[in-house]
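QA checklist item 7 of 12: single-chain prediction sanity check.
[x] sequence parsed
[x] length recorded as 147
[x] structure emitted
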Amino acid sequence: MSTEIPRSRREFERALSALKKEIQGGSENPGSYGCDNCQRCYHCMFTTGSRDCSFCTYCRDCTGCSRCTQCVECENCHDSNYCVRSKNCSASSYLILSEDCAECVFCFGCVGLVQEEFHILNQPFTRQEYFELVAELKAAMGIEAGK
């Protein structure tokens, strides 16, 4: 059963505006399981305090993320894992305080990197140097070990 689609620009824009208000105004989490204090999360599992996420698992306090696992306080990250306080990153893992990175692993405070690993403030380090410095930085910045 289909409804009549408005043909005029004015009526179509009015119907679209009403639809946006209806959908964006809801707080349901369709297809989600074990989500606590989430809004508009779609097919997320064991996610808490997040909104507008989809297909995320064990994420906390994230916004606009998709297909992420174990991310905390991230925004608009996609296909990423174990990221903390990062924004606009994709296909990355173990990023902390990073933005606009893609396909990166183990980066702390980096911006705009692509396919890099073991970087702090966009500077490369050996694996050992990286973990030693990150431990110091986490302590100095009050970032918990697991976050």
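[x] summary fact logged: The mean pLDDT is 92.
[ ] second reviewer sign-off
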